[in-house]
Structure formats: C-alpha cells, structure tokens
UniProtKB/TrEMBL annotation:
Enzyme class (EC, first level): transferase
UniProt GO BP: DNA replication; double-strand break repair via nonhomologous end joining
EC number: 2.7.7.7
Domain DNA-directed DNA polymerase X residue range list: 25-394
Entry protein name: DNA polymerase
Compartment annotation: Nucleus
UniProt source species: Crucibulum laeve
Function description: DNA polymerase that functions in several pathways of DNA repair. Involved in base excision repair (BER) responsible for repair of lesions that give rise to abasic (AP) sites in DNA. Also contributes to DNA double-strand break repair by non-homologous end joining and homologous recombination. Has both template-dependent and template-independent (terminal transferase) DNA polymerase activities. Has also a 5'-deoxyribose-5-phosphate lyase (dRP lyase) activity.
Active site (UniProt): 89
C-alpha cells in the first residue's frame, strides 16, 4: 500500500512532510537517546542546537532499517540534517547501545528538575530555569512556592469573567491579565495528578461526542475532527484536540464566529468545563507564544466527564479549535501535528512552492491568493506533496 511504499522510498528526503514517520520506529531506543539531547538543549534555552537534535530525531524516525555499522556507513552518513557531531553520537550508540552524554544528562538533578517543572501545564523552559535558580527541585517545592489551593474543584479560574473564586467562596474580581499565567500554573499544579493519567482512545471519542452534542444545541450542523496525537495513532493521549467548523462555505463563517466563547461558557455552565486556561484573543499565555501559533479561535480548557457519561471523573485537558469553512482542512492538518511535520510543511510551502501554509489557511505569497481546499488530500495536492497518512506524521 501507499504507506509502506512511502516508508521504503521517502526516508532520506529533507522535509519531514515528505517522509513517512511511524509512531514507533525500528530505531526507537536511539531516537529516545537523541531526544534527551534535544530536550536538554530546549530546557537550557539553546534553540538552534535543540532544533538540530530535533531534526536528527525526526530523520531517524523515518529510517526503515535497524541502524548497525553496515547501514550506518551505507545510508546514515548520507542523510540530511546529520552533522559531524550528531553522526559521532549515532556511531557511539551503534557501538555501545547508549550515548554517554545522554546518560549523564538524564541522571543529572538539573535536567530532572527542569523536565519535571515543565510537565506542569503553562511552565516553559524559562519559568522552569527560574524556579531552579531560586532553589526549587521537586514538585512539592513547586506546590509550596505557588501556594496551591487544597480544594481545586471549588476554585475556579474564570477567564471569561476575569475572576478567581477561591474555596471559601471569595471572589477575586478584575484579576490582572499578567497575573493569569501564574493562576493557571496553580490550577495545573493542583490537577497535575489527574493530567498525568493518559486518556485512552475510547474516552477521547466519548469526550468528543459530548462536546459535539452540546454544540449542536447552540449551532446545528457543525462538523469536527479529533486531531492531535490521537489522529496520529497514539493509544493514549495527553489531551483531546478537536477542530470544529461549519460545512457551508457561504454562511458558515458567520455561524462559527464567536462560537468558541459561546460553547466554552455553555460547557462551563453545564459543569463539563471546570477551568479555562486560555481563550483566544483573551490573554496570550506565555506557553502559547510559540512560532507555531495561528489566528483561529480556540479554547484550551479543563474538562470533567461524569462517570454516568463514561468518564472517570478525572480532569482532562480539552482543546477546542474553531475554523471558518474555508480553513477547515488546513486547521485539521495543522492541529494533527506533529510539531516537526508542521514546521516542515510551512517550510516546504514557502521554499519549494512560494506559498504560505498555516492552520488558518493556504495562500500564494506574491499576490496573497487564498486557496479553498475541499479536503485534506487537496491541501497536499495544492502543495505538490504526496499524501501522508496521519498515522505516518509522527516526525
Ligand atoms: P498537542 O495537543 O500539544 O500535542 P499532541 O496532540 O501532538 O500530543 P499529546 O498527546 O501530548 O497531546 O498539540 C496538538 C497539535 O497542535 C500538535 O500536534 C501540533 C499543533 N500545535 C502546534 O502546531 N503548535 C503548538 O504550539 C501546539 C501546542 C500545538
Ligand atoms: Mn521540542
Ligand atoms: Mn494533543
Ligand atoms: Mn492540545
């Protein structure tokens, strides 16, 4: 089939969006080892160096054979994105089954603390390094530092009303915008144990169905796709990502406008959404200010599904992304990931096609002509790319 043909043919190409990358690759242990080097550079704020390792991991993920001394000489030395230094690391792995620097870093207190801090939603490398610098090491240190409220379910961060309701019912109204990231971290810390429990596929589907059932009450006939890691075939997800639109190209845009806030408020009133971490156009959360952000309306929420609806009463992160009809398929692609696949999709569009791709649309650069793709496949066609199944976009 097409997928296995892509695996055998396209593994040496420069762009992640022209390669097929399975969830688990034949050289997974090497990928994990190199990824430690990527992560440590990222956590230390060394962006260019981090990207080199990230690209190395991505190209390894698409390589279909076991890397041994023979395939190393035959193929690996010719792969793009692998400089001399990284090749030495790979060679070291082939010889010893591990990379010494990766082992040292993984065992270091600094790497462990920074990694741990940044698992808390809203904490990026900069905050993690600051917390380490003032002496924090463990999650318990962080809980003390942020003074996490004991009863989080009666503590509501309501970004819709810009207020915080504390467990004893005290309302802090007019919370300043620059205080919000700190409050989101408090909440993320308090529900951290729930968020650490991954979401099985069946529960992702149930949450999606509940969201769409409730949305139907506000706006009939919307369409949706579950995106993110789920769509790339992950058996367990860290959150649920849903792209929503309306199929009518003429009237759909007006129907979608403002619907994100409306749905979030509705789900909040129904008790499904317990906390809102971010609502687009509202406050620009530090953690979200990345090169990958788009202009779509979105709500990053905390969601609880009651057991009678098939839930486990756990706090789950649910991201709702609203696209106007003409941007539906680009949004589906953009939010399906992976991050590296998207990065190279944008690069390919720009460098190879003179076009601009992001989740909010596909345009020609010289005259800003907007394309309106009717399917996901059509986006690939317009960009002159071979179809890559979502389960093969794990670069
Ligand atoms: P995430 O939900 O953060 O990641 P994921 O779904 O790939 O994996 P997980 O199981 O951990 O949730 O993001 C969903 C997709 O949205 C991601 O694959 C690519 C896109 N995205 C960006 O392009 N830029 C970003 O900054 C983020 C957060 C996501
Ligand atoms: Mn990364
Ligand atoms: Mn996700
Ligand atoms: Mn997400």
């Amino acid at each position: 089939d097409t997928t296995s043909r892509q695996i055998t043919r396209n593994w040496g190409t420069r762009y992640a969006c022209t390669r097929a990358s399975p969830l688990v690759c034949p050289n997974q242990a090497l990928a994990i080892e190199l990824n430690i080097l990527h992560r440590s550079r990222e956590l230390e704020g060394k962006a260019a160096n981090a990207l080199s390792y990230e690209r190395a991991v991505a190209i390894i993920k698409s390589y279909p054979k076991i890397i041994d001394s023979e395939t190393f000489e035959e193929d690996i030395v010719k792969l793009p994105h692998l400089g001399k230094k990284i090749l030495t690391k790979i060679e070291e792995f082939v010889e010893n089954g591990h990379i010494k620097e990766s082992r040292t870093i993984a065992a270091s207190e600094r790497f462990q603390s920074l990694s741990l801090f940044s698992t808390v939603y809203g904490v990026g490398p900069v905050t993690a390094r600051n917390l380490y610098a003032i002496g924090l090491r463990k999650i318990e240190d962080m809980e003390r530092y942020y003074d996490v409220p004991p009863d989080i379910d009666s503590t509501y961060l309501n970004v819709l009303e810009l207020e915080l309701v504390t467990p004893n019912g005290k309302r802090i109204i007019g919370l300043s915008k620059n205080k919000l990231p700190e409050v989101s971290i408090k909440i993320a810390l308090a529900i951290r144990k729930d968020l650490d429990i991954k979401i099985p596929r069946a529960e992702v589907q149930t949450i999606h169905d509940v969201v769409m059932r409730e949305l139907e009450k506000l706006q009939v006939g919307c369409i949706s796709t579950i995106v993110g890691g789920y769509r790339r075939g992950k058996l367990e997800s860290n959150d649920v990502d849903i792209v929503i639109s309306h199929p009518d190209l003429k009237t759909g845009a007006a129907k979608i406008k403002g619907l994100c806030t409306q749905l979030t408020k509705h789900l909040y009133k129904q008790g499904y959404v317990t906390h809102v971490m971010h609502l687009s156009g509202f406050h620009e959360h530090n953690a979200l200010r990345t090169e990958h952000w788009d202009s779509l309306e979105k709500a990053l929420t905390v969601f609880v599904l009651p057991p009678k609806e098939g839930g486990r009463k756990l706090h789950r992160r649910v991201d709702l992304i609203f696209a106007p009809p003409e941007a539906y398929w680009t949004a589906v692609i953009g939010w399906s990931g992976s991050k590296m696949f998207q990065r190279d999709l944008r690069l390919w569009a720009k460098v190879e096609r003179g076009m601009k791709f992001d989740s909010s649309g596909l345009t020609r650069r010289h005259d800003s002509k907007l394309f309106i793709p009717r399917s996901e496949k059509e986006v690939f066609d317009i960009l002159g790319l071979e179809w890559i199944d979502p389960r093969m976009r794990n670069a």
